[in-house]
Write a structure and sequence with these properties.
This protein is of the alpha/beta class. It has two domains: 196 residues, Medium-chain alcohol dehydrogenases, catalytic domain (Quinone Oxidoreductase, Chain A, domain 1); 126 residues, Rossmann fold. It is built from ten helices and 17 strands. The strands form four sheets. Strands 3, 4, 5, 8, 9, 16 and 17 form a seven-stranded mixed sheet that branches. The protein has a six-stranded parallel sheet with strand order 12-11-10-13-14-15, with helices on both faces. A two-stranded antiparallel sheet has the order 1-2. Strand 16, helix 10 and strand 17 form a beta-alpha-beta unit. The longest helix has 13 residues. It starts with a strand and ends with a strand. The relative contact order is 0.16. It binds zinc ion (2 copies). One zinc ion (ZN) binds next to loops.
Length: 338
């Protein structure tokens, strides 16, 4: 089959590799569409957990084409599925305590084993979720990132009428805008430097759009004089995160959603944290949140088609990947079958 292979740090090869065959507990999926994500960029730069060579790709949907002999369950050839790339051991303390995203024996499709930027991918059957007809190939490739948003909102319950500031309107920020629109928030303000993204945030339901720049603090103060009940970082930029606390109201909750470089550091005043009754929340990946993400997409609560700026065949992976890494695309998808 054709596949994208990261042969080493910062090395991309589009090549032919043997078709995967399913282990007894696995199925093989013909990949319909797969999303490029910031994690893939970290893997490419050797900043993440992966070894090389690796076929990346962890946000995908497709059709089951082979079923391992012990993988039956309720999956059959021809089923359309999305697969949770996070493979949990189910026997460590975290898996046994409903905290599987902290599994001590975690493996990741497209991270520690071959992923979906290929015509076919093998995954354990237990990781697969059957998709309703109403979910398009594009939406199927959004189940995984949206499941991360669901996890974040479970970590951060929004209280009725909370005022929310989202910093960053990339694909994840734009999913957050839509999800928060349905959360009971009274005001959703988006702060973003790219005007096209800001405009899209408005179309996705944001109430106030503030261009990032010198005038941002004045504009944010005018909108929320005491600050926001909830501030969410969806940029992963350390300097932006450090500054974000300036917009947090007393009793406010700060959510770190964007992924920073691993060695990033910020300064925060412990006195401010104490004096303002602040809460700081992290949200890592997803945790049993595939089903709610599928429901949101199936019912049109979250719309993803406009978040995709590029859909490319496998052969064009390197070009679209570099443009994505440079921030020149919104969500970029690959269709391995063309
Ligand atoms: Zn991802
Ligand atoms: Zn585990």
């Amino acid at each position: 089959m054709k596949a994208v292979v990261f042969t080493g740090p910062e090395q991309i090869s589009i090549t032919r590799v043997p078709d995967p065959t399913p282990a007894p507990d696995e199925v093989v999926i013909r990949v319909a569409q797969a999303g490029i994500c910031g994690t893939d960029v970290h893997i490419y730069r050797n900043e993440y957990l992966s070894d090389f060579p690796l076929i990346p790709g962890h946000e995908f949907g497709g059709t089951v084409v082979a079923v391992g002999r012990e993988a039956g369950g309720d999956l059959a050839v021809g089923d359309r599925v999305a697969a949770d790339p996070n493979l949990y051991c189910m026997h460590c303390d975290f898996c046994r305590n409903e905290q599987a995203n902290h599994c001590r024996n975690w493996q990741g499709v497209g991270v520690t084993r071959d992923g979906a930027f290929a015509e076919y991918v093998a995954v354990p059957a237990r990781a697969c979720y059957r998709l309703p007809e109403s979910i398009s190939d594009t939406a199927a490739a959004f189940v995984e990132p949206l499941a991360c948003v669901v996890h974040a909102l479970k970590r951060l319950p929004v209280s009725p009428a909370d005022r929310v500031l989202i910093i960053g309107a990339g694909p994840m920020g734009l999913l957050l805008v839509q999800a928060l629109r349905h959360s009971g928030a009274s005001d959703i303000t988006v702060l973003e430097k790219q005007s096209a993204r800001l405009q899209l945030a408005g179309e996705m339901g944001a109430d106030a759009l503030i261009p990032a720049g010198e005038a941002q603090t004045e504009a944010l103060r005018a909108r929320a004089p005491y600050g926001y009940d909830v501030v969410i970082d969806a940029t992963g930029v350390p300097a932006v995160i450090e500054n974000a606390f300036a917009y947090l109201r007393p009793r406010g909750r700060f959510l770190q959603f964007g992924v920073t470089p691993r060695n990033a550091r910020i300064q925060i005043s412990p006195y401010d944290l104490f004096h303002n009754d602040w809460t700081i929340i992290g949200s890592f990946a997803l945790c049993y949140t595939f089903l709610p993400a599928i429901d949101w997409l199936a019912h049109g609560v979250i719309r993803v088609e406009r978040l995709v700026s590029d859909v490319a065949p496998l052969e064009d992976f390197a070009d679209v990947f570099h443009r994505f890494a440079a921030g020149e695309t919104l969500k970029a998808h690959i269709r391995p079958a063309g």
